[in-house]
Amino acid sequence: MDLLHTQDGTPTLLHPVYGEAYHPRQGALLQARRLYLEQTRTHLHPAPRVLEVGLGLLVNFRASLESALLRGVRLRYLAVEREPLPGELLARVRLPLPLAEEVFQDILGRWPAERFAGPWGELRVLFGDVREVQLPRLWATAVYLDPFSPRANPEAWSPFVLRALRRALRPGGRLATYSAQGAFRRALKEAGFALHRVPGVGKREWTVGIGRGVPPG
Ligand SMILES: C[S@@+](CC[C@H](N)C(=O)[O-])C[C@H]1O[C@@H](n2cnc3c(N)ncnc32)[C@H](O)[C@@H]1O
């Protein structure tokens, strides 16, 4: 697969079946920072635990790790991915994040594995479909919901999945996603999230869901 360049100079890929890019054309790293990292407040958290749906090119992971390393905090990251990309391809996806890139080189040396750990923290990968994996209860301080769009990839946005993500989130934790689709937003509210519309970059709105209190189940 050929890498494409987004407008902030960071790479992305086009998925051959979904016909969608892994990141917006305005910037892969730009979205990782402005949406996932900042809108979930992960960049401020003293002990961040991120649950991601769609690890992809590990752009969101590396942006989160760089932020944690610069602040001297450990990152715990649990990602669900059903189509892991080959290591040779990931090795070509370089990002201007010097601290995280060093850890990424170690990860690539053992890719794909279910757990990577070091003084920086931990990355665990659940290789499977988000509808089928077992997520930990009340674990995450943040959820990055980053599959392909609800139109192309509807199963990853279903009420069933959103309820599972709500159960995985700690009280006060935040879910962020680029999608502003109406049906998805209604399902997010029904799953027990307080819905917030935030201004997007390259699109009018992104979506943030805040998990208030302890969810049932
Ligand atoms: C938009 S890309 C993610 C980009 C990634 N977050 C990054 O930082 O580079 C979407 C990813 O979601 C994964 N995905 C889509 N549907 C899924 C599902 N039902 N379960 C698990 N992973 C899924 C795809 O394989 C793909 O890697």
Automatic annotation (TrEMBL):
GO terms for molecular function: oxidoreductase activity, acting on the CH-NH group of donors; tRNA (5-methylaminomethyl-2-thiouridylate)(34)-methyltransferase activity. The keyword Oxidoreductase does not apply. Transmembrane segments: none annotated. Residues 121-209 form the MnmC-like methyltransferase domain. One of its GO terms (biological process) is methylation. It comes from the Bacteria. InterPro entries: MnmC-like_methylTransf, SAM-dependent_MTases_sf, tRNA_MNMC2. SUPFAM superfamilies: S-adenosyl-L-methionine-dependent methyltransferases (SSF53335). Keywords: Methyltransferase, Transferase. NCBIfam families: tRNA_MNMC2. This is Methyltransferase. It comes from Thermus thermamylovorans.
